[in-house]
Amino acid sequence: GPSLKESFKGDFFIGTALNTAQIEEKIPGAAALVPQQFNAVTPENIMKAEVMHPEWSRYNFEMSDKLVAYAKKHNIVVNAHTLIWHSQLPQFVRRIKDADSVRLFFTDHINTIAGRYDGQVYSWDVVNEALNEDGTMRKSIFLDKLGDDFVVEAFRLAQKAAPKTKLYYNDYNIEQPKKRAGAIALIKKIQAAGVRIDGVGIQGHWHINHLPLKDIEESILEFSALGIDVMFTELDLSVLPNPRDIVGADVNQRAAYEAKLNPYTTGLPDSVQTQLAKSYEDVFRLFLKHKDKISRVTLWGVDDGQSWLNGFPVRGRTNYPLLFDKEFKPKSAFYKVIALK
Ligand code: XIL
């Protein structure tokens, strides 16, 4: 059958996010599908600091080495994710109180990990999610102890440790005007310091009812005007309501509330399936329009069954945000996307 990677060959990389079981090829459906459909992979969790750097002087390269070997075997590039992020940090970092120790962690972490995989991974998300919605710097242990310049410093260290690796800034909602302005200022600051940044990743965790096509298009143009690659790095389209949009969270109506929160446990109604397909078609049409400016589109997961959106922002839901269903079958969204070519 048709494949995403063949369809978009010459346009942009088409990627997916993998966890341990898929990297170890323990899920037959995923083991067959990933090399057939995708030519880029992002580790969904296994290259985050809490996994790779569990204690002060102990690194854990077990899964990341397996990922690199897996990718090499299947002729897929690795987009490593992520060096510096406020979340999924190891316990020992959360306990640090003084700036010198944060700096020691920061420097050693980047040098060791970026250095080890230079020439083995295609790119790094050097810094992830450093901004607030209003475009100001987000509160974190790095901002708190190292100050505003921690982003520039992270890229400076990464450029030295990983001269052969592309270096990216990655964040969500940076297609939104205020946050986008913050990201542009941040990228310009890195460039003004004479430090290398090769691209920006717009995560792309969107919703079928609010697909910000105009903001996405403006972002592609404005980010690429900075002379860097633009990527969509964690694309998924939720079909479920945001909990804050559900009114009537009455304790006496618990069952009704839960049903509203998780309405499609037995399958996706045709009307929503169609809307999802249309949303994917619209966003991929826009990507194709600007394919000269877009270097990669990565879906945040292989199939609906393992999507993080089944557990976020509330646990235990059944979401349908990807192009393959939980049986690894292509959905109508897949066929709509393929048909654009
Ligand atoms: C998510 C993973 O998908 C989950 O499995 C994990 O529990 C939490 O992190 N932005 C990012 C990603 O940059 O690293 C996040 O991944 C999703 C939001």
Automatic annotation (TrEMBL):
The keyword Hydrolase applies. It is an enzyme of class 3 (hydrolase). This is Beta-xylanase. Gene3D superfamilies: Glycosidases. Residues 1-340 form the GH10 domain. PANTHER family: ENDO-1,4-BETA-XYLANASE A (PTHR31490:SF90), GLYCOSYL HYDROLASE (PTHR31490). The active site is at E234 (nucleophile). It comes from Lacibacter luteus. It catalyses: Endohydrolysis of (1->4)-beta-D-xylosidic linkages in xylans.
